[in-house]
């Protein structure tokens, strides 16, 4: 497996796209190598199948410019922070050795999202183990950030907001790849408008057309003061 700059992890296909799809597109456009990981295939859903979801996820990744996407063999609706789940993800982290790791926001109504956040945090720690049966060489991602894709209607204070004005259209196109979720599943058709509205709201807070928020448990340092603008 190739070394990557960034690894973005979601509980299900479309989680990363909803929370940070435009940022992924921006990172790729700026020359970063991004890998996406889905902990489950997201099935069952009313109009999806394993094969459908895998095809949709591959199409969405292609839209965002991401060459590498993995789906772990963990169960949707039963996702839990177990040693097995931690080790499976840690092996991918060791294989790709990303500098940046992105996880779901840890507070949510969806149990899978809460579990996914915990799995990523633990896998980051597991990935540096020396005496272990896990494959790959020890690696510890320098930074872990959480993206915002929650079912709760809550107000959260981000650590930073990324200006994604140039890439918000690519995010919409990627989400459109999930036809089984946002087309055929009529109850979810409003998600696209909600995601777009959220991006406009976050962007307004930093004086741009669109933005995506991120959260960090650790303090963030700035090497170049021009990044503050």
Question: How would you summarize this macromolecular structure in one to three sentences?
Answer:
The protein has 229 residues and is α/β, with parallel strands linked by helices. 39% of the residues lie in helices and 17% in strands.
Secondary structure class reads alpha/beta
Name of the CATH homologous superfamily: LmbE-like
This entry's quaternary arrangement is: single chain
Number of domains: 1
The average pLDDT score comes to: 95
Distance between the termini: 36 Å
Shape: globular
How many alpha or pi helices? Answer: 7
The helix-strand sequence is EHEHEHEHEEHHHE
**Highest-level CATH class:** Alpha Beta
Task: Give me the CATH fold name.
Answer: Rossmann fold
How many β-strand runs?
7
Q: State the CATH architecture.
A: 3-Layer(aba) Sandwich
Rg result: 17 Å
Biggest pleated sheet: 7 strands, mixed
Secondary structure: elements and pairs:
Blueprint: E1 6-10, H1 15-29, E2 34-40, H2 50-64, E3 68-74, H3 83-96, E4 100-104, H4 111-126, E5 143-147, E6 160-163, H5 168-176, H6 179-182, H7 190-205, E7 211-215
Parallel strand pairs: 1-2, 1-4, 2-3, 4-5
Antiparallel strand pairs: 5-7, 6-7
Helix pairs in contact: 1-5, 2-5, 3-4
What does this structure look like?
- The chain is of the alpha/beta class.
- It has one domain: LmbE-like (Rossmann fold), CATH 3.40.50.
- Helices cover 39% and strands 17% of the residues.
- A 7-stranded mixed β-sheet has the order 3-2-1-4-5-7-6, sandwiched between helices.
- Helix 1 links the parallel strand 1 and strand 2.
- The longest helix has 16 residues.
- The termini are far apart.
